Each structure stands twice: as structure tokens, then as C-alpha cells.
């Protein structure tokens, strides 16, 4: 059962400076334990359904972190009427300030699901359809897993996993705030008005309920913004809880949803002006034998000074210049392996604040024994992480290492204090810690603001007591050719690493897991694991999975063992996934246990213990020191990563005129997926159309590449494009692909499909774009349009465009649009990894299971932007000279796709271009081949001002045409 905490005491741990003051709070609660009854004074929930949908609800059981629960399965198109019994508040006639909390699981995501609706015009017993008023829902789950309202969505809900969601509606501040598992993920400031849209009907009126999972969208029998929901508990509180109070309710892993009042915490929105009070810290970073960094955060900008001394000596001081909110002071000239007393001071507006004295110890110079602790994935569970931190502190380690996901959403400022720094304080005030960045940090600037680590702070190494620690970023490119790979290669084979007693590596994502699998794991196995094994790494520590996994493996080609420790149970919701992987590298899996790892090191032995929340060891291994060869292998061929280009300028074309895979224009790279000596390279040929006895292109001979059928998923072609995220997402959502291609009749006869695109980083999923060789249509997911003829050159263009919140695929053959289809939300299946990701590439002409074919490619174009129909039309049918005109050998120096003012072609701009615009506008002349080129002044339209602008530039010294 859930254990109730002393409210003020627990909240004080999170917000030390804001005392508890009682205020009234009433709770309407339903626990769905086999029926729809309320465990409070509220009435039973009432089931109703969308018109044309049969009412559907049943009850099932599940296990959440080892606790058996009963929950309701609310069918698609069904809603629940909640008669709460709460009175009006917030100075109006309705319930204006409240908190709605629900423990839910969504079997599937990908479409909109309404979470609740405040509007209703049902009969008083709630028996009619919940959608009679025709209003949109008031809180939504978007298809990509984000929650929110009115175009403002954030956070991440994962399909088929339990989450605790909370919505705070505060009429006093006007705020509408969404939480996932205790962490704020979304906020609409000024959205809430007294007796407005988000107000709930109070008790005592003709309508005294709100609706769960109801929405009006769709036709009879076909609801559009409703879905199947698993509901374990739901409650409505007549108070707008503050972040500390939401934190008291915890996340889904904290046990059943508590029904006790928690309101009473005064959460300051803004600190008092000039108050230098310490908000976070002090905490310790980056220790060496002679230096250490001390950090803390104040409530307002203030000075920052550290006072420190050895026992019995006089105080010394070090300060940072100026004033700051987050303070960082590096102490230098210290003696090795000694304990120092320290405190921090900040002053603002004549007020001085000083921390209590604490101690730190510098790194030893010649010592070969030490203890360190490792934790992973505390995320949005400060109560559990606080326990873990106190246990680690009691172990008295020399240093500690976090494996990432130290917050649930790195872009949310409040999370860094509530979820990470405050609960870590029992350890961090005395023990220096290092952190490998995870995916939930989202590479936020707060990670770099709050931490002071060596190097660039997300990959670095350091030495301590005969150990060489290596931390790298598994979210950032790490394939051969990347900056991080080269650094990792150099560091692992450096004298410091090879001569260390123990070589230890830390990163967020694991290479091996028997519980879950992601594409980044496969990339780590492909690119990083061979380095670790060859370099003689002793232990590879990882997080991410929210369980504990351990193994010791001896690679046959090195004969030297390596231990894999996956520890990610410091607070995040414990995963229940069952990947059923069978890796020789993993021998022990322990789920549903919050834990950390303690490591004891001597010159010759290393002992690892996994420690649970009771402080007991539930797994232990011992390693004996082994020698290393110190011989660095020949580095693999690089996967080229193009230099960063502005959004819309990552344009690359391949015409194969040189008989190789070199780009004809742009910086992108086309490579054989299985390497230069693999099966793809061996079966790929270059030559002219006459060499291959195939049709010329529009009567002209052309240079082409004959590509083979990728019989295995290792075959095919890999494209690194260099594009940055776009389309309001974290990945490349807007892009265009153009193929000048001939599919021979032999391929039509032998194969059913030709795969053109796979965005999956390891080519382990089904392709994302196909030619259906049975019909000749192009597309995906059962929607195939147009006709590709056998033995005929065609120009196929595919434009992925974010329109109205969804990705729309526009399909063209020979300049004519043949169809379009909706592909769901941004950052979904068809989004490409950007150059900022660990796998900044996509695959073409391959599939995960050989569901593809061979053919001929004359020209291939990638653009990180969505071309419009006019631009595709201007490209026309296939051309022997390629898709875009390319000067011989221009490569990366090729001009952009268009230049403003060059309406007639690359020879301009000149007077003929201005005349062309005028003829088009006023005499019925032909349309420009590229409308953007005619939009000389970049206003978004082509009109008389463009011709005048160009003439002024040409003849009276006016401004040049807008870029590009």
C-alpha cells in the first residue's frame, strides 16, 4: 500500500524556504477497482458513448512496479461522466481552480485522444451521448505522445506504459499546466479565465459534472479524437496545486494515487527582489588533486564567494566576477588527497546569505584504491532519488557518476531543482559528481549551466586513483568520421587509458539489453563496442532501461573480458517491457527494483554491488585486473558527416558522372551501407545507358548507377545529409527526395516491391517508401498512386511537409502530382535524424527483409525543405544532365537550388529577367520555372514590385536581390 508522507516535511525537502500553511482542499476520487464507484463522497462514474458506438468498459489487472492493480478498459469512443460534488471557487460561479489527476495507460498512441472536457449538455443522469454540445476536448494527448492544448504540447507519453498525468487549472494566475509523473511538461500562461472555457460545472446545478475522454470530432460510429484508455484511478481536487504539492503526489512508480489533501504549500512564483537566498546547492564538481569546482544557485542575481580551509588553518576565499544566478567557482592550488572545510556566500541588495559549512576532499595523487557510486535515470521521482542519494552518501564514496536522464524534461527549468539537485544534495554537498547526458536532458542549456565538467562537458575523461574514467554522449554522433568517435578512439588508446589499472566507460544508452531494443543500441554495437573490446575496457556502465542488467563477456577475438552494467533504477518508472533479447553479454536481469551501484576498487580487484532502497546488495561481481595490449586498431572508414548548413540549405545531388558515389553538388555523402568492400559495392556498376543496353533519357545518353537488390538489410546505400531539425520538431520533418530512375521489367517480374527510403537508423524496420511493382504505384501504408512503367525513365519526387500539425506526403511522377497522404505527427516514423543525432543519416534502395529490387539511377536529390508543386513541376521529367543543373566539378560549391532574379536561368540576373516577369504578369507570358527566383524582393508573392526592384538594382544602384 502507498505510505502517506508527513506533508510539510516532505515538501520542505523540495522548497526549503517556503513554509506550509493550511488551506482547504476537497478531493473527489475514483479508484476503478472493479467498478465505477467513488471512494470519496462523489457519485459513481457513468459510462456513455459516441453516437453509433456501443458502450464498452471492462476491468482487467496489471502489475505496476510489483504492485497488482485492477483498472478499467474504456473502449474507443466511450467517455465517463464524473459527478464530483465540489463547489464553485475562484471568485466565480464555477469550479475555477482545480487539479485533475489520473493514472492512465494508452495501448496505442499516434492519434489525438481527448483526456477531458468541461462542457456538457447531457440529461441529468448523464445517460446520453457525451458529445451533444459539439465542443472540442479541453486537454489532449497528441499523436506524438505530447500533452497540452491550443497548439502548445510537450512531454512524452509512451504507448502501453502507465503514467500519472496531472492538469492544474489556476484562475488566480491564469495558468494551465500539465504534468507527467510529477514533472511539469507544458504551460499555457494566461489561458484560464474565471468562469471561462476550463471552468467545471459545480455541485448543485442542473449540470454538475465534467467528462473524461470525451470529444465531438468525427461522424456517427467513427469518433476521431477518442481512443482506448486504461484508467487505474482519477481524482479532482478543488485547489490549484503548486509544483511542490504535485511532487508530493509523485509519479506512477510511487504507488496508488493518494487521496489525502496536500494543498498548503506556498510556492513562490518569483523570488523577492534582491533576496540572495540559496535555492540549490552548494554542490561539488570536477575534482583533481589540486582543484575542485563548487556551484550553487541563488534566488536572485548575487555575488558568489567560496570560503575554504584545511583543518586548523585560516580561511581563504575565491570568487567569480560579477553577479549571477547560477554560481561556479573553481578552487585552485589545493593539496592532493586532503579534506577541506568550505561554505559559500552570496550578496545582493545589501543582504548576505551564507551556507552551512561542509567538507570536500581533493583527489589523491598516488592512491590506487577508491570507492565510487553510479546511478541512472532518477527522472521525475525526487522522493525515491532522495532515498538513493542518502544511501550513496552513507557509503562515503570518493566520487559519483550519473548515467543521464537526471530530469524528465531538460527544457523545463523547475525540473533541474526539484528532480535533480535538491534530492541529490545529501550526496553532492560533500562528494563531487559527474554526469553522462541522457536523452531526457534534450541537450538543454540547463545541463551545461548547472554542471561544470571537463572538456566540452558531454564527452570527456579524467583520472582518479589509478582508474581512467571515460564519459561520452550516446545522443550525439559517434560513428566513424564523427568528432566524438575520433575523440573516443584517441582517448581509449591514450597512454592514460592503456596504463590505467582500470579502464571504465560511462554513457546513457546501452549496447545490450534483454528488456528493450532501440536503433541506437545497434549503432553502439556496430561502432563503439569494437572499440571498447579492443581497447581493453573493464566495465561499460549504462542507463536508460529502468532496470538492472549485468553480464561479463569475453570476446573471442580479444580474449579479454569486459563487464556490462546497466543501472537505471534511481527513481524513474521501472519498465515492464519484455523484449526477450538473448545476449551472451547479459547474464542477470533484475526488474522492478529501484537501486544504484557501488564500486570498490583496489590496484588488483574491482567489486561491483547493486544496492536496493533498503541498502541491501542484490547482485555482486568481482573482477581481477588484466593486462592490455595497448595496440590501437586501424580505424574503420569514416561515415562522412557534412558540415552544418542553415535550415533549407542542406542540398545534395548525385549524378554518378564520375563512376562513383561522389556528390555532384552539395556536402552530403552517399555510401555503401555495408562498407566499401561489402556485397553492395561488389554488385553495383557504373556506366552509360548504352553500356547497360537500356533506354536513353529523353533521347540522350546518360551516366547511371546500376544498383543491386539488397537481399540483406546490411546491403543498400546510406545517406548522411547534414540537415538540422526543422518542421517545429527535434528531427528533419520537412524534406524532399527526387529520383531519376528506371526499373527494368526483370525487377517487375521477379520482385513485388522496391524500397526507396528507410529512416530507421539500423535498417531494422520496414521501409518507409516503396514502388509497388505489382501495380506501379508509389507510396506507403496501402496508399499507392500513379504508375511507374517498366524499362522507362521516370522522375519520382516525394515531398514530406508539415501542414496543420501533420506530415503530408506529396507524390509526383514526371512533374505531376499523383497523390498525397497523411503520415501523422511531426517527429514520427517518417522524420529523419538530424546532423545533431547519434545516427544522422537515412537509407535508400534497401529494406529490413529484402523486400526490394534492383534498377538504374541517373540522378538523386535530397533537399531539407518541402518543395511546392510549382517547383516540382519546374523540374519536369527526367533529364540526362540530372535533376538540378550542375556545373562540372562544382561539388560543394554549387549554387543554391534557385537565385532570386535569375528568372530565365543561371546567366542572370539581367534586363531579360525583369522583362520575363512583366510579360508573365501583364501579357500572358509563360510562368517562371522557379517562382522563388521571380520573387526578387522576397515578399512571398510575384508582382510588379519584383520587376521594379530588379530594374533598380540593374540600372540605378538599388539593393541586390534578396538571398539566396
Describe the model.
The protein is α+β, with helices and mostly antiparallel strands and 964 residues long. It has 5 domains: 24-254, Jelly Rolls; 278-361, Immunoglobulin-like (Sandwich), CATH 2.60.40; 370-624, 4-Layer Sandwich (Purple Acid Phosphatase, chain A, domain 2), CATH 3.60.21.10; 652-875, Jelly Rolls (Sandwich), CATH 2.60.120; 898-964, Type 1 dockerin domain, CATH 1.10.1330. The protein is 13% helix and 31% strand. The chain has 15 helices and 53 strands. The strands form 10 sheets. Strands 1, 3, 4, 6, 11, 12, 13 and 17 form an 8-stranded antiparallel sheet that branches. A hairpin with a 2-residue loop joins strand 50 and strand 51 (816-825). The radius of gyration is 31 Å and the shape is globular. The protein starts with 6 loop residues before the first helix and ends in a 9-residue tail after the last helix. 51% of the residues are buried. Residues 1-23 and 268-273 have low confidence and may be disordered.
Provide a compact summary of the structure.
The protein is of the alpha+beta class and 964 residues long. Helices cover 13% and strands 31% of the residues. Strand 47 (778-780) and strand 48 form a beta hairpin.
Name of the CATH architecture of the largest domain: 4-Layer Sandwich
Strand content: 25-35%
> How can the largest sheet be summarized?
8 strands, antiparallel
Structural category is alpha+beta
Query: Average pLDDT, to the nearest integer?
Result: 88
Count of spatially separate domains: 5
Per DSSP, the total helix count is 15
- Helical percentage: 10-25%
Residue windows where pLDDT falls under 50 for at least 5 positions: 1-23, 268-273
Overall CATH class of the largest domain: Alpha Beta
Q: Which topology of the largest domain does CATH recognise?
A: Purple Acid Phosphatase, chain A, domain 2
Number of separate strands: 53
CATH superfamily of the largest domain, by name, is: Metallo-dependent phosphatases
Amino acid at each position: 500500500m502507498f505510505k502517506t508522507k508527513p506533508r510539510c516535511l516532505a515538501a520542505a525537502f523540495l522548497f526549503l524556504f517556503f513554509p506550509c500553511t493550511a488551506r482547504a482542499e476537497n478531493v473527489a476520487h475514483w479508484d476503478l477497482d472493479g467498478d465505477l464507484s467513488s471512494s470519496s463522497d462523489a457519485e459513481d462514474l457513468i459510462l456513455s458513448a459516441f453516437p453509433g458506438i456501443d458502450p464498452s468498459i471492462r476491468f482487467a489487472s496489471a502489475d505496476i512496479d510489483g504492485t497488482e492493480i485492477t483498472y478499467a478498459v474504456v473502449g474507443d469512443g466511450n467517455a465517463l461522466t464524473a459527478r464530483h460534488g465540489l463547489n464553485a471557487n475562484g471568485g466565480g460561479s464555477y469550479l475555477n481552480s482545480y487539479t485533475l489527476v489520473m493514472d492512465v495507460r494508452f495501448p496505442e498512441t499516434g492519434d489525438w485522444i481527448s483526456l477531458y472536457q468541461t462542457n456538457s449538455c447531457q440529461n441529468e443522469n448523464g445517460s446520453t451521448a457525451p458529445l451533444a454540445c459539439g465542443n472540442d476536448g479541453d486537454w489532449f494527448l497528441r499523436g506524438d505522445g505530447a500533452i497540452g492544448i491550443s497548439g502548445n504540447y510537450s512531454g512524452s507519453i509512451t504507448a502501453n506504459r502507465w503514467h500519472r498525468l496531472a492538469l492544474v487549472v489556476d484562475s488566480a494566475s491564469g495558468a494551465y499546466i500539465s504534468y507527467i509523473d510529477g514533472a511539469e511538461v507544458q504551460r499555457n500562461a494566461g489561458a484560464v479565465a474565471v468562469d471561462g472555457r476550463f471552468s467545471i460545472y459545480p455541485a448543485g446545478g442542473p449540470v454538475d459534472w465534467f467528462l473524461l475522454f470525451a470529444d465531438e470530432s468525427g461522424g456517427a460510429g467513427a469518433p476521431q479524437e477518442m481512443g482506448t484508455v486504461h484508467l487505474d484511478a482519477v481524482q479532482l481536487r478543488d485547489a490549484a496545486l503548486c509544483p511542490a504539492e504535485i511532487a508530493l503526489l509523485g509519479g506512477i512508480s510511487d504507488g496508488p494515487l493518494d487521496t489525502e489533501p496536500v494543498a498548503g504549500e506556498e510556492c513562490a512564483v518569483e523570488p523577492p527582489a534582491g533576496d540572495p537566498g540559496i535555492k540549490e546547492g552548494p554542490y561539488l564538481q570536477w575534482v583533481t588533486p589540486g582543484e575542485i569546482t563548487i556551484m550553487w544557485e541563488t534566488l536572485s542575481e548575487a555575488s558568489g564567494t567560496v570560503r575554504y580551509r584545511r583543518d586548523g588553518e585560516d580561511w581563504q576565499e575565491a570568487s567569480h566576477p560579477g553577479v549571477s544566478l547560477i554560481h561556479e567557482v573553481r578552487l585552485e592550488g589545493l593539496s592532493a588527497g586532503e579534506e577541506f572545510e568550505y561554505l559559500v556566500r552570496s550578496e545582493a541588495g545589501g543582504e548576505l546569505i551564507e551556507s552551512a559549512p561542509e567538507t570536500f576532499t581533493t583527489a589523491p595523487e598516488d592512491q590506487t584504491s577508491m570507492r565510487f557510486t553510479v546511478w541512472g535515470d532518477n527522472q521525475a521521482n525526487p522522493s525515491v532519488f532522495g532515498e538513493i542519494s542518502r544511501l550513496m552518501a552513507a557509503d562515503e564514496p570518493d566520487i559519483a557518476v550519473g548515467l543521464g536522464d537526471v530530469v524528465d524534461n531538460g527544457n523545463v527549468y523547475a525540473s533541474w531543482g526539484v528532480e535533480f539537485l535538491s534530492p541529490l544534495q545529501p550526496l553532492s554537498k560533500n562528494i563531487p559528481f559527474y554526469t553522462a547526458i541522457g536523452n531526457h536532458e534534450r541537450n538543454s542549456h540547463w545541463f551545461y549551466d548547472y554542471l561544470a565538467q571537463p572538456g566540452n562537458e558531454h564527452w570527456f575523461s579524467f583520472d582518479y586513483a589509478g582508474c581512467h574514467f571515460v564519459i561520452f554522449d550516446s545522443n550525439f554522433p559517434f560513428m566513424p568520421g564523427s568528432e566524438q568517435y575520433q575523440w573516443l578512439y584517441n582517448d581509449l588508446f591514450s597512454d592514460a587509458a592503456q596504463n590505467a589499472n582500470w579502464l571504465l566507460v560511462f554513457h546513457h544508452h546501452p549496447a545490450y539489453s534483454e528488456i528493450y531494443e532501440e536503433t541506437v543500441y545497434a549503432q553502439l554495437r556496430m561502432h563503439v563496442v569494437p572499440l571498447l573490446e579492443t581497447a581493453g575496457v573493464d566495465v561499460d556502465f549504462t542507463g536508460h532501461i529502468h532496470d538492472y542488467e549485468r553480464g561479463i563477456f569475453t570476446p573471442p577475438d580479444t580474449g579479454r573480458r569486459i563487464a556490462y552494467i546497466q543501472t537505471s533504477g534511481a527513481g524513474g518508472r521501472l519498465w515492464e517491457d519484455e523484449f526477450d533479447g538473448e545476449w551472451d553479454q547479459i547474464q542477470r536481469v533484475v526488474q522492478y527494483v529501484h537501486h544504484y551501484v557501488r564500486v570498490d576498487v583496489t590496484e588488483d580487484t574491482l567489486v561491483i554491488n547493486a544496492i536496493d532502497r533498503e541498502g541491501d546488495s542484490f547482485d555482486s561481481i568481482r573482477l581481477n585486473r588484466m593486462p592490455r595490449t595497448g595496440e590501437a586498431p586501424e580505424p574503420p572508414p569514416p561515415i562522412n558527416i557534412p558540415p552544418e548548413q542553415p535550415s533549407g540549405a542542406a542540398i545534395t545531388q548525385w549524378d554518378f558522372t564520375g563512376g562513383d558515389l561522389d556528390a555532384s553538388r552539395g556536402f552530403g555523402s552517399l555510401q555503401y551501407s555495408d562498407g566499401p568492400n561489402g556485397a553492395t559495392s561488389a554488385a553495383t556498376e557504373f556506366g552509360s545507358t548504352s553500356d547497360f543496353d537500356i533506354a536513353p533519357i529523353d533521347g540522350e545518353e546518360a551516366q547511371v548507377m546500376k544498383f543491386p537488390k539488397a537481399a540483406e538489410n546490411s546491403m543498400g546505400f546510406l545517406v548522411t545529409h547534414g540537415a538540422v531539425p526543422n518542421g517545429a520538431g527535434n528531427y528533419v520533418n520537412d524534406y524532399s527526395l527526387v529520383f531519376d530512375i528506371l526499373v527494368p521489367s526483370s525487377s517487375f517480374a521477379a520482385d513485388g516491391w522496391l524500397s526507396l527510403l528507410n529512416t530507421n537508423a539500423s535498417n531494422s524496420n520496414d521501409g518507409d517508401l516503396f514502388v509497388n511493382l505489382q501495380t506501379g504505384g508509389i507510396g506507403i501504408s496501402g496508399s499507392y498512386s500513379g504508375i511507374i512503367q517498366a524499362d522507362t525513365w521516370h522522375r519520382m519526387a516525394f515531398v514530406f511537409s508539415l501542414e496543420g500539425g501533420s506530415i503530408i506526403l506529396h507524390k509526383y511522377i514526371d512533374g505531376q502530382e499523383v497523390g498525397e497522404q497523411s503520415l501523422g505527427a511531426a517527429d514520427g516514423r517518417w522524420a529523419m535524424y538530424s546532423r545533431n543525432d547519434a545516427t544522422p543519416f537515412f537509407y535508400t534502395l534497401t529494406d529490413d527483409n529484402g523486400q526490394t529490387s534492383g534498377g538504374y539511377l541517373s540522378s538523386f536529390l535530397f533537399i531539407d525543405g518541402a518543395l511546392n508543386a510549382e517547383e516540382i513541376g519546374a523540374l519536369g521529367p527526367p533529364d540526362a544532365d540530372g535533376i538540378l543543373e550542375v556545373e562540372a566539378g562544382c561539388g560543394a560549391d554549387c549554387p543554391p537550388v534557385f537565385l532570386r532574379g535569375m528568372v530565365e536561368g543561371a546567366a542572370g540576373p539581367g534586363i531579360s529577367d525583369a522583362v520575363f516577369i512583366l510579360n508573365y504578369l501583364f501579357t500572358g507570358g509563360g510562368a517562371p520555372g522557379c517562382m522563388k527566383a521571380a520573387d526578387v524582393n522576397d515578399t512571398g508573392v510575384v508582382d510588379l514590385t519584383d520587376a521594379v526592384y530588379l530594374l533598380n538594382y540593374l540600372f540605378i544602384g538599388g539593393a541586390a536581390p534578396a538571398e539566396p
